[in-house]
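Troubleshooting entry. The earlier prediction with HMH gave an output that would not parse, so I re-checked the input for stray whitespace and re-submitted. Clean input:
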Amino acid sequence: MRTALTIAGSDSSGGAGIQADIKTMTANGVYAMSAITALTAQNTTGVTGIMEVTPQFLEEQLDDIFTDIRPDAVKIGMVSAGPLIKVIAAVLKKYEAKHVVVDPVMVATSGSRLISDDAIEVLKTSLLPLAEVLTPNIPEAEVLSGMRVRTEEDMASAAEYIGRTYHCAVLCKGGHQLNDANDLLYRDGECLWFRGRHIDNPNTHGTGCTLSSAIASNLAKGYCMEAAVERAKAYISGALSAMLDLGKGSGPMNHAFDLESEFIGTRDGDKEVWL
Ligand SMILES: Nc1ncnc2c1ncn2[C@@H]1O[C@H](COP(=O)(O)OP(=O)(O)OP(=O)(O)O)[C@@H](O)[C@H]1O
Ligand SMILES: Cc1ncc(CO)c(N)n1
């Protein structure tokens, strides 16, 4: 079985962060592992608290993972502080991690800030150059490129600038800001649009985490970048189309929409019963 690692924050409401990543990786058929950067107290209406792990403890988690079950792909999500980002960069280099997907998480769907200003600088200098692909949404693409992004042409210019600066592929997500389902992949000097069907669902908590984890899962399984993005788009469209409606704010998606049966236990010792 192929393996994937998420390095991200925990979302107590289960729709984003580590929880979304593990659900996504599992649904996409890879073995999921996690190194937690911070606990967040949050729900669908906002984030009320953040408790970071120490850099030493993050390093310990990562060393334990890489020296035992080597990940075939790594997804990096919320990392709120510079010293934590430095640890991640050092570990990725030390173990020559493959298929590194960085979702430069800055603000939650609910509007809460998830990274400090100095950490953004460390992200740019230490971590982004190690990525195979970055998955910024439009506000994140604006911060990383220093450009104003209002149109599809702006998305292409910003993605190209970011890709040339950090020598990686860039998937700029239209997301809930511009054109919902249309994302642009810049790679090796070329732009490729992934045009999805807009799904009329206000519940988009964790869409960014889910997409980047689905890309990492598919890279872990050996798909090329274009195929990994295509398959990840299909997965997120399915999860949004399931129209789960939980919580008082922008709720989570149904990550398990494609699981046909529900395991209910065993009978007669060894006979499994499925619904
Ligand atoms: N209503 C929608 N219908 C179809 N696809 C959507 C919709 N909203 C978002 N997506 C897709 O979900 C993926 C995640 O994009 P989005 O821009 O929402 O991420 P994000 O802003 O980083 O998310 P988050 O708020 O979780 O950080 C993209 O592929 C985007 O096209
Ligand atoms: C822990 C965590 N990571 C990422 C996001 C972005 O949606 C979030 N809301 N929470």
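This one parsed fine. The chain has a mean pLDDT of 93.
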